[in-house]
Amino acid sequence: MIPYGKHLVDHHDVEAVVDVLKSNYLTQGQVTTELETRFAAKVGVRHAIAANSATSCLHAACVALGIQDGDWVWTTPLSFVASSNCALYCGARIDFVDVERGSNNICPKKLEEKLIEAEKKSVLPKAVILVHLSGLPCDLREFRELSDKYNFFIIEDASHAAGATYLNQKIGSCEFSDICVFSLHPVKNFTSGEGGIATTNNPNYAKEMRRMICHGIERENFIGKNDFEGSWYYEQVQLGYNYRLSDIHAALGVSQLSKLDSFVSKRAEIAEIYTTEFSELCLTSPNIPSDRTSGWHLYIVKLDKKFKKFSHKEVFENLRAQGIGVNLHYIPIYRHPFYATMGFQPSKFPVSESYYRSAISLPIYPSLSEKQLDFVIQTVKSILR
Ligand SMILES: *Cc1c(COP(=O)(O)O)cnc(C)c1O
């Protein structure tokens, strides 16, 4: 089966991890700091905080922004459940804003309409979590304008968007957001095995996130509060978690980070070939506006309504039967039983619903061979022609 995505680990990566295994420190230490420093420099941001997953980073981001019981957090239905679970961890309530047809990202117009309604009822969200689905950046400037007007925080879930740019700035620079989160899960654009990085330009958020991912303990060297207290002294100042990244993982992350640009170029090459080859078929290929570039974590096509030969499900199962590990990103979050009990009505999200009935993620990853790529193209063509 040709999967929809796959990591690419070479001997440099292996050596980097082995070096840590032979060293004195296995968990969070110098190598994790190196990953943070390099990543911050790469995306052009002041602070980068590494943790054991993007999910942990999203939780830490919500805590750092003071999200708590009674607050509202809004996000897109078309994401992995972690994008909304993070708000629930904090006791907040979650709501969704439908996506726009072209980008499959949260729709700024629908967000504005929802904000106008929410303002009347005094239930404005404390934060909106934007997801750059497939790696295509949301129109961040428009969201920033809305956040200034309606006073909510912006968290970017950039799990798909490592290596993407918006208005010539790297995603992660937080030019238009408060905190941006990346996933280093193996299927993402670069990996540490498991891992996540949160970026921010705000020193307080950085400090809060660091503390929260390490038991709520202050890292700084303290002088004991009492005469009898010596250099052993430290303080837990809030309830935190153990969300630390290990240096073993960080070593893989550092080594992979040096290849991120080449990984993303390879993904972009594959995307371009797909788009050219599929131009005559009854499907919609991704369209990237000229003011941004995609991280191409996913290549998502949507079957046209006028295609009647097979149903969406038939096309999907047919591709899998022929050895192409297509996937669907994502089942709209409100459709999961856990969320359905909160009373969401699918009919309120018509664009997400139509996406769910037409989307297919095709294989895209740096080690996809020409032969495999050709096989995918020919198979898709044979089914959709
Ligand atoms: C992968 C992913 C996550 C979760 O990342 P982990 O590092 O596995 O916690 C969150 N949001 C989106 C959009 C993702 O694709």
Question: Notable features of this structure?
Answer:
385 residues, alpha/beta, seven-stranded mixed β-sheet, three-stranded antiparallel β-sheet, 13 helices, 37% helix, 13% strand, globular, binds pyridoxal-5'-phosphate
Describe this structure in words.
It is a single chain. With 385 residues, this protein is of the alpha/beta class. It is 37% helix and 13% strand. The chain is built from 13 helices and 13 strands. The chain has a 7-stranded mixed β-sheet with strand order 1-9-8-5-4-2-3, with helices on both faces. A 3-stranded antiparallel β-sheet has the order 7-6-11, with no helix packed on it. It binds pyridoxal-5'-phosphate. Pyridoxal-5'-phosphate (PLP) is lined by residues 53-55, 79-80, 82-83, 131, 157, 159-160, 183, 185, 196.
Order of helices and strands: HHEHEHEHEHEEEEEHHHEEEHHHEH
Query: Radius of gyration, Cα only, in angstroms?
Result: 22 Å
Give the terminus-to-terminus CA distance.
23 Å
Largest sheet features: 7 strands, mixed
Q: What is the average per-residue confidence, as pLDDT, rounded to a whole number?
A: 97
Per the principal axes of the C-alpha atoms, what is the gross shape?
globular
Give the distinct bound molecules.
pyridoxal-5'-phosphate
Q: How would you classify the helix and strand content by structural class?
A: alpha/beta
Helix content: 25-40%
| Tally of helical segments | 13
Poorly predicted sequence stretches spanning 5 or more consecutive residues: none
What's the arrangement of strands in the largest beta sheet? 1-9-8-5-4-2-3
- Which strand-content bin applies to the residues? 5-15%
Please provide the count of β strands: 13
